Every structure is written in structure tokens, then in C-alpha cells.
Amino acid sequence: MLGSDIRCDAVLITGASSGIGAATAKHLCEKGYFVFAGVRQQQQADAVKKSVDHDANLLSVILDVTKEGDIFRATEFVNEILTEKGLRLAGLVNNAADENLGPVEVLPLEVFRRELEVGYLGAVAVTKAFLPRLRQASGRIINMSSVNGRCTFKYHATTCATKYAIEAFSDALRMEVRPWGMKVSIIEPGPTDTPLMREKTIEEFSQKLSQYPKEQLDLYFKDLDDTIKRAEMFVQRISAPPRGPLDKVRRILNGQGWLHSPLDVARVIEHALSSRRPKTRYLIGVQAKLIHVARRLLSDRAFDRFLGENVFDF
Ligand SMILES: NC(=O)c1ccc[n+]([C@@H]2O[C@H](COP(=O)([O-])OP(=O)(O)OC[C@H]3O[C@@H](n4cnc5c(N)ncnc54)[C@H](OP(=O)(O)O)[C@@H]3O)[C@@H](O)[C@H]2O)c1
To answer: Which atom of ligand 1 is nearest to the CA of 17?
Structure first.
């Protein structure tokens, strides 16, 4: 049974087990969408279902975006439910990502491959599978990029390359699906308060990086333990909410920044889904906007120096 306030629009979100994906699933349910929440494990499926108030409006789908079998089964399942409930697939949010940090020389090729496989090829595969159903509803495709899709940061080669690929894919797709009244939007958040920015950033430095050859790590980090401590302090600093507009200005000048709420991003995704004229790109947050402006105004070398002194200089 559908909830009484439900509209006829359904949305599929990949990577809905945590962070922005989970917040978006919850927010869209509250706004009356029927949500298919893509997760990788049954345990996560149960947790997502429990987390929403309007639980009649959400179904979890096991969907590892790198697995063809999962994508095929998810397509069958979603099509069946849409038909059964008389819903249209109004949107697809390609949100899943597996981000990694580290110097190019140190990260194994497999890490680059894996990240592209999840964040880029996964989005392409899921989009291809659901395009026929989305077309029937002149649906929207919303791809999660990042400020990392606009400019590149040190130790972010895998992530930035994946997001640049998502940007190019989205631009081509936007032009291709226009004849059916379909729209494609790219979401570009700045730093957001999710496990990716908190636990996973620390884990990258403390556990993952330390397993790579010491002689390579020594080339980039004078003292890895000290780097880990600084990464922890950085995450702690940006996790503290700003104490007002002045504090925001101070933090911008110090290059410290702060984390946005995942709900802010979810609201932007809702706009991209529902607005008559959705933007092609949504750059979210003053920090992302400032970095973008700096990138456009400065030369490559001047921008490198600007970042070195301000952002992610572990
Ligand atoms: N947080 C930020 O500051 C920020 C800023 C800009 C852009 N973004 C983008 O926002 C999106 C969501 O990130 P987040 O911050 O919410 O991070 P998150 O909490 O780590 O969420 C990532 C999601 O992707 C899922 N995932 C990983 N590998 C997958 C696979 N093979 N198949 C399907 N799902 C998979 C994860 O599932 P498991 O739980 O099963 O691992 C998780 O649900 C990402 O595209 C990220 O690049 C984040």
C-alpha cells in the first residue's frame, strides 16, 4: 500500500546506505516520493527502511553498481513494482562512490580502477539500465559530482578523475536525452558531514595508506604518524559547526572550512528533481564556490600554491 500523501513519482538512489544517499532517501520520502534505496547488504536495507518515517514509501534494493547481476535484478524488481503500483520512474540519483586518498605513486593501480568502476562506470551502467523506464516519464538523471569535479586537489587524483569523468558523461547525456524532455543535473557539493568526510578520511590515512611501501610513503610524508594526527585534527576542526557568519569568514581566510549538512545536499537534489527548470550544475556551499572562483581566476601554478597553503595540506 502506498502512503496516503504519496505522489506518482518514484526515484532510485544508489549508495543510499549512508551519508548523502541516506539523507536524500529520507528527505524525498518525506516529500512524498516513492524511493528505491540502493544498498549493498540486507542489513543496510533493513536499517534504511527503519530510518524513514513514511516507511510505506520506501523499498530497498540490493544494488552493487559494479555487479551486472545486481543491476539486472534491480531493473526487474523496480519495473515490477512501478507497474504494480502505477508509478513512474521520475528520477535516478547516481550517488554511490568509493573514494580514496593518497599520492599517485603510492596508490596501487587497482585503487584507481576500483574507484572509476564504482563512481563512474557504475553510474553509466545503472543509467543505461534504467534509461528506457526513465524516458517513459521524461525523467531526471542526477549525478553526484563534487567540487572535485571542478578542480583537483593534492592526493585526490582518483577521486577527481572519477568526478571529471562524471561531469563529461553528464554533459554528453544531457544533450542526448533532451529530445524526450529529460533533464540531467550534476550536483557538486563542498565538504559535507558524512562518513566519507569523517571516519573514512581518517581511515584512509591511518589504515589504508600505512599498508603501502614505507620507502614510497617517506617520499611524500616526512612523518606518516604526524600526517595522520594532522588529518585527524583537520577533520575535527571542520566538523565543528561554525559559530556564526564571522566564524565562517575567519575559517575561509584560514582555509579551514566546515562541513555542510547532508540534508542541504538532499534539498538541492529535490530541486533538481522537481523544478521546472533544473540547473545543469549545482555547486553547493560558499567554500566550493570560492574554490571554484579561485580556480578560474588563478593560473595553474598560482592555484597549486593557493591550495598548498589552504586546503588539505596534510
Ligand atoms: N561528503 C562529502 O564531503 C562529499 C562532497 C562532494 C561530493 N560527495 C559525493 O557524494 C556522494 C555520497 O558520498 P557520501 O559523502 O554520502 O559518502 P558515504 O557516506 O561514504 O556514501 C557512499 C555510498 O556509496 C556506497 N557504495 C560504495 N561502493 C558501492 C558500490 N560498489 N555499489 C553501490 N554503492 C556503493 C556506499 O555503500 P556501503 O555503505 O555499502 O559502502 C555508501 O552508501 C559520493 O558520490 C561523493 O563523491 C561527497
So the answer is: 43
Q: Residue range 23-28: average pLDDT?
A: 96
Q: Where are the alpha helices (DSSP H) in 13-121?
A: 19-30, 42-51, 68-85, 109-116
Quote the pTM value.
Answer: 0.94
The strand pairing partners of 13, in sequence order, are 37, 93
Q: What is the spatial distance between Cα 156 and Cα 71, in angstroms, rounded to a whole number? A: 28
CATH of domain 9-310: 3.40.50.720
Would you state the cell numbers that stand for residue 126, as one nine-digit string? Answer: 545503472
Atom of ligand 1 nearest to the CA of 95: 45
Burial 115-125 (b: 16+ CB within 10 A, else e): bbbbbbbbbbb
Q: What is the mean pLDDT of residues 249-261?
A: 83
pLDDT, mean over the chain: 92
Distance CA 290, CA 236 (A): 22
Question: Any idea where the domains of the chain sit in the sequence?
Answer: 9-310
